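Thread: Modeling a multi-component assembly for a lab meeting

Hi all, long-time lurker, first post. My supervisor asked me to bring a structural picture of a complex we are working on to next week's group meeting, and I have zero experience with this. I have the sequence lines for every component (506 residues in total). Could someone generate the structure of the whole assembly? Inputs are pasted exactly as I received them:
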Amino acid sequence: MQLIPCPWCGPREEVEFHYGGQAHVAYPAESAALSDEEWAKFVFFRDNPRGPFAERWSHAAGCRRWFNAVRDTRSYELLAVYRPDQERPVTT
Amino acid sequence: MTTGNPPARPGADLPDHPSFLWRNPDPATSYDVVVVGGGGHGLATAYYLAMVHGITNVAVLEKGWLAGGNMARNTTIIRSNYLWDESSGIYEHALKLWEGLEDELGYPILFDQRGVLNLAHSLQDVRDSVRRVNANRLNGIDAEWLDADGVKEVCPIINVSPDVRYPVLGATYQPRAGIAKHDYVAWGFASVADRLGVDLIQNCEVTGIETAGGRVTGVNTTRGRIAAGKVALCASGHSSELAAMAGIELPVQSHPLQALVSELLEPVHPTVVMSNAVHVYVSQAHKGELVMGAGIDSYNGYGQRGSFHIIERQMSASLELFPIFARAHVLRTWAGIVDVSPDASPIIGLTPVDGLYLNCGWGTGGFKATPGVGDCFAHTIANDKPHPYNEPFTLERFTTGALVDEHGAAAVAH
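Re: Modeling a multi-component assembly
Sure thing. I ran the full set together rather than chain by chain. Output:
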């Protein structure tokens, strides 16, 4: 089973984690001013890259904290994990 | 000294190689329609373009080998018992086409209407299921609600004891549902399309989509540029990447969906059983393997393999339902990459680029729709206008809010 390195707890088995989809999707600043197209983009459209992807994970059966990871969606290799308040790190 | 007759060529006593089902042509420089993706949907689309609309200057471009993606990886379940009128339209259209497909293609596809049970394990499941049965019947689709004894009668090997974690309280039953042999379906569509003049081009990956003045003009491929009057995308899990080549964003996410087969067993399982709550669906293939599918892996992925714990969960669910499977050995496990849409319904139709057509978002349930979507998508391409059956499934519905929420009937949690 794949081990996911929780930034707080260290490497733990994949079953302990809950997936949260794309990271760094900010709630619209002026939500009242959004058009239907812009709402659709915010609610339904997410990146779907074949390659490195910054995404959210929660250590649901562990410390229960959220964190971000950059993971390659081809190999499933975790290239970086970082706290939600940090910028996406540069990965090669 | 004589050595007698020279030894015979090895294999000379074997029958000739059967004739090939299709040519293996090099791409021409231009086509009226280029279909991207040589799986079931792409091949069916090409077949109906040629057969129904007389459009035969068509190429199907496949980056690997024909029907080697999700068409080779699905669990071949065919049914039409979806909740909403929009879904009933296209899935029931497909099921009616399945019923005549073997004769139409003149090719055996082993379509077997052995019925499907969708199990209910909780009071809410029961209410949802009864509602879906009623909706199906109003749409002219065969559907019955069975209690646990009724389930046992249709499928004697199922455990309906109340002493399990998720007892079977009943099931919806669609007798006209069933399975087909996925490879034969692809080969049937491919061979007839080829005979009608369609070029089926393998090992040809699309690397770019050319547009000029808001209209598609061709595709760049690993085998050169191909000009096209119209381009139709049928690439399931890779649709996001392809559409991005034309500057179109899609509301789909690509996930691994796993399946497995057991070794060959005597016929023990007479129907198809699906459970949304415990995440397993099981049938027995004609040859004798138990074919089992699970829910999708939670994370996005393109690796055509999934996490082992999903398989463990699926096996424990199936063992609780079918104690008789306890001694069966797993033969193979694999995954396909499915493009999951926000409302568990497909996206089929026109795009903001003229002459570019979209068929994606089928998630875990594309196989059952193969002839139906082929027919409707070909109609959409030929007439530059959606067929009435795929009119509700536009890309615009995510802006207008007219979603077709089939999470309940999709039978696999998305």
